[in-house]
């Protein structure tokens, strides 16, 4: 398992808004015709696949929980289905860094409110500053306040926290700990505005590696957590006492007893460590702290657990093992709110043989472990583990004791006992979220059961995608950190990632167009071959042999008939081979590091691109000749593909804002290219099944067309384009790969940098979007808020909030209204819908049918309209009950 996440290069992106431009924009004189079509979007299921550094339970509402990821956004738990719902898919291209979440806070006074501190990198890799997002509908919609500094959701130390906190007595007050020496910040208006707490004395000084010139490991990790002592305040008044953790080994914890006016370093505190977590038990008056000698999430060689008595100032070392016996730091830390003397902690950086969970029921006086040695190397476990829902979590390993598969995990910095249920606990790892619902068996001598609690949380970074025209595989993916998968069913988790060999990250893959049983992939591996082949459509694999000098995967291309391959690995020049890579010969006429692809008809024709030049080989990759084509992008942010079924038909996308940027087409094998008019920017290109009645395959691209950034489809060779995503489905950066499905018209697979493989299908007439018929109409009062959020010449976007103002919960809901001006719903999210004439009925989807009394549910939609009038509906009915209109 590689210990770094994918780092997306900065592509000179300009700053923009969280919500993008409306999904349909009138064509301009220089742009091709542009329309929009409703699509239904889902994930090709992998379930997890990345680091989950934070899990947050609301302290006042049962079953309300959130998870944050380092590059893949935030999620809300859905108790009815035991799944996670993504909350930040609306983050757009220009602010892709806001998919990195450094902290979350769920409001304990008004549980509908949730806050997210977002930003992926504090160095130059991230083009925008950080922001605090605030939501009044549990993350269904957001408002944003930009900050004057960057935040680092994917930076070192990201597992510490939470850096963002809501005052439990006066919930309009929030605190945010900043990195990079920016100090402590406070909002007194529910996150709308922020100012620095100038009286706070220490902005931190710990840097993982001060010599790192990139600014990544050398950044000051700053203020790392904020914890309130709720017992020192009353409802409506600011909490008097709060504690702040600082990345400073000599001065790690500070306290204020006057609501943040003045601050003092806690006397007598341990030194030589960083306090990863500070969890306060107000009932017994203890602040518990988890310490490590480094900031994590990968490193850490020593650690301690301490208890601080808030009344007396007494420090007690409650570590479960002697310091000399630690080879890891502590980070995950939680208190059972039902039984506050029960606490748990994790050895987050114990990579071998496994992570460790510790549990105490007496305030840390004594501890037990999740596993222990009987006689080395044999282990006795207090748990059972069932990963049948995510079988790839075994990583195809067959380790020797004391290692086991699946592991309890690694990078286990998030650990929470449900504050309403002592038997439920969740913790995050570098690959998934594990949980249990019978945790208390630990104390009775039984075995508690662990299983993945991660469905709906998709956190892979996608490098390449390929959809073969035949065979059992629907989709091949090349992924960061966990290699990639062969999907035979998009709705099911594959049994295993690619193995034999298992790459840490797969960088490129291809199949033979006329023989899709032949597949090749290349990737990164600490030791071993960097190329693998399959002759059974990716079901099984065997390793090839590296030529001398290979240090990484690079790109690879398979001949149309599978007879030969061209490989451009990292570390050496382009190579070619016949057969399956038992020997390689150097390719002439093409520079090292070139991107390579194959013609999809002529088995001896291959193409390459490097630094503005296109290269062509007609002898199986032995020699390449530079094309005379000019005007192509000068850099290497380019992706190109040859069209199946037509020799020499090549499409090229890429560029940068300060030079040539767009989409180009060649019909003569790259000898010349024509820039497609009206495509202002394009970063990927792919092909799928032709539209009914069309002879040319459908084009797909992640691009900017008509001033709109989005995912586009063309059924007429780029003469006109249809935007098929919308403002609610943008997924940050989607520039790595795209492909249509050669078997299903309209289906497209989109890469994301942290939200997994997203695929879309054309929404059918009367599509319910996954909605289900509710139980007989809910009873009780209801209130509806209808807000038009965007409006343009022939369309609009609206948000609807439906509140249960009655006295009993709804188990399913159905809301009906009528349009007065001929409006038509084109796509709806967070609800299914039908429309008959002017009448629209929106229904709950699987995860939001239960609405407790006093709670609300929100959904949104885009619609078309004609004329200048766009009246709001005059009335709404919940079943047969008329709702109050707010």
Automatic annotation (TrEMBL):
CDD domains, per the entry: Sialidase_non-viral
Cleaved signal peptide residues: 1-26
The keyword Endoplasmic reticulum is assigned to this record: no
Family matches, as SUPFAM superfamilies: Carbohydrate-binding domain, Oligoxyloglucan reducing end-specific cellobiohydrolase
Domain called CBM2: residue spans: 775-886
Cross-referenced Gene3D superfamilies: 2.60.40.290, YVTN repeat-like/Quinoprotein amine dehydrogenase
UniProtKB keywords: Carbohydrate metabolism, Glycosidase, Hydrolase, Polysaccharide degradation, Signal
Entry keyword annotation includes Hydrolase: yes
A Pfam cross-reference name: CBM_2
Family indicated by similarity: Belongs to the glycosyl hydrolase 74 family.
Name listed for the protein in its UniProt record: Cellulose binding domain-containing protein
């Amino acid at each position: 398992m590689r210990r770094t996440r994918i780092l997306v290069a900065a592509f000179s992106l300009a700053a923009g808004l969280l919500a993008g431009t409306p999904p349909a924009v009138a064509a301009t004189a220089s742009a091709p015709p542009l329309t929009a079509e409703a699509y239904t979007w889902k994930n090709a299921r992998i379930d997890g696949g990345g680091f989950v550094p934070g899990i947050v339970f609301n302290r006042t509402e049962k079953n309300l929980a959130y998870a944050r990821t380092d590059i893949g956004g935030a999620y809300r738990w859905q108790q009815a289905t035991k799944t996670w719902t993504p909350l930040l898919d609306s983050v757009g291209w220009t602010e892709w860094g806001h998919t990195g979440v450094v902290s979350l806070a769920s409001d304990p006074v008004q549980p509908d409110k949730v806050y997210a501190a977002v930003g992926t990198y504090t160095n130059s890799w991230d083009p925008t500053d950080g922001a605090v997002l605030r939501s009044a509908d549990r993350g269904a919609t957001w408002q944003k306040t930009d900050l004057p500094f960057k935040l680092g959701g994917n930076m070192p130390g990201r597992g510490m926290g939470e850096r963002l906190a809501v005052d439990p007595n006066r919930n309009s007050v929030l605190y945010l700990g900043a990195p990079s020496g920016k100090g402590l910040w406070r909002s007194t208006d529910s996150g709308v505005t922020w100012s620095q707490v100038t009286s706070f004395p220490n902005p931190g000084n710990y840097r993982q590696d001060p010599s790192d010139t990139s600014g990544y490991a050398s950044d000051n990790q700053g203020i790392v957590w904020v914890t309130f002592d709720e017992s020192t305040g009353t409802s409506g008044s600011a909490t008097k006492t709060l504690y702040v953790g600082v990345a400073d080994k000599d001065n790690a914890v500070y306290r204020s007893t006057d609501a943040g006016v003045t601050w003092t370093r806690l006397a007598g505190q341990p030194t030589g460590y960083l306090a990863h977590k500070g969890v306060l038990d107000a009932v017994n008056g203890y602040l518990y702290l988890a310490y490590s000698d480094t900031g994590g999430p990968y490193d850490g060689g020593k650690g301690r657990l301490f208890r601080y008595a808030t009344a007396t100032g007494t420090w007690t070392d409650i570590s479960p093992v002697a310091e000399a016996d630690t080879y890891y730091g502590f980070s995950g830390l939680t208190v059972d709110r039902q039984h506050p003397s029960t606490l748990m902690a994790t050895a987050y950086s114990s990579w071998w043989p496994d992570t460790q969970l510790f549990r105490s029921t007496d305030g840390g006086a004594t501890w037990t472990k999740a596993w222990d040695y009987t006689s080395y190397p044999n282990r006795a476990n207090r748990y059972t583990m069932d990963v049948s829902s995510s079988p790839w979590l075994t990583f195809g390993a067959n380790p020797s004791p004391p290692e086991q598969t699946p592991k309890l995990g690694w990078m286990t910095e998030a650990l929470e006992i449900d504050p309403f249920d002592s038997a439920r606990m969740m913790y995050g790892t570098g690959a998934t979220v594990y949980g249990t619902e019978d945790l208390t068996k630990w104390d009775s001598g039984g075995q508690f059961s662990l299983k993945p609690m991660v469905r709906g949380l998709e956190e892979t970074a996608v490098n390449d995608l390929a959809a073969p025209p035949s065979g059992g595989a629907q989709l091949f993916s090349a992924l960061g950190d966990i290699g990639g998968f062969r999907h035979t069913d998009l709705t099911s988790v594959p049994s295993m990632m690619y193995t034999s060999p298992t790459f840490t990250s797969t960088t490129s893959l291809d199949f033979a167009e006329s023989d899709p049983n032949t597949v090749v992939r290349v990737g990164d591996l600490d030791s071993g071959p960097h190329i693998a082949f399959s002759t059974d459509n990716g079901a099984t694999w065997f390793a090839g042999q590296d030529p001398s000098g290979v240090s990484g995967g690079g790109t690879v291309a398979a001949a149309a008939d599978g007879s030969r391959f061209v490989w451009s690995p990292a570390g050496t020049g382009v190579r070619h081979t016949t057969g399956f890579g038992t020997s390689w010969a150097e390719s002439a006429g093409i520079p090292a590091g070139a991107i390579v692809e194959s013609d999809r008809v002529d088995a001896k024709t291959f193409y390459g691109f490097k630094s503005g030049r296109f290269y062509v080989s007609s002898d199986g990759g032995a020699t390449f000749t530079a094309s005379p084509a000019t005007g192509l992008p000068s850099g290497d942010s380019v992706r190109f593909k040859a069209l199946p079924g037509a020799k020499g038909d090549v499409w090229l996308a890429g560029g940068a804002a300060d030079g040539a940027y767009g989409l180009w087409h060649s019909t003569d094998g790259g000898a010349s290219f024509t820039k497609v008019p009206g495509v202002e920017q394009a970063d990927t290109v792919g092909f799928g099944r032709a539209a009914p009645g069309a002879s040319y395959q459908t084009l797909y691209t992640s691009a900017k067309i008509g001033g709109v950034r989005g995912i586009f489809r063309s059924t007429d060779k780029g003469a006109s384009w249809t935007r098929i995503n919308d403002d609610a489905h943008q997924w940050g950066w989607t520039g790595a790969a795209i492909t249509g499905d050669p078997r299903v018209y309209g289906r497209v697979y989109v890469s994301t940098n942290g939200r997994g493989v997203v695929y879309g299908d054309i929404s059918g007439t009367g599509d319910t979007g996954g909605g289900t018929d509710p139980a007989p109409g809910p009873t009780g009062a209801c209130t509806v808020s209808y807000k038009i959020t965007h409006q343009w010449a022939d369309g609009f976007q609206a948000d609807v909030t439906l509140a249960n103002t009655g006295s009993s919960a709804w188990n399913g809901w159905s809301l009906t209204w009528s349009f007065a001006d001929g409006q038509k719903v084109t796509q709806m999210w967070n609800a299914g819908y039908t429309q008959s004439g002017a009448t629209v009925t929106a229904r709950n989807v699987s995860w939001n049918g239960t609405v407790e009394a006093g709670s609300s549910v929100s959904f949104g939609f885009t619609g078309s309209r004609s004329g200048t009038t766009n009246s709001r509906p005059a009335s709404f009915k919940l079943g047969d009950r008329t709702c109050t209109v707010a």
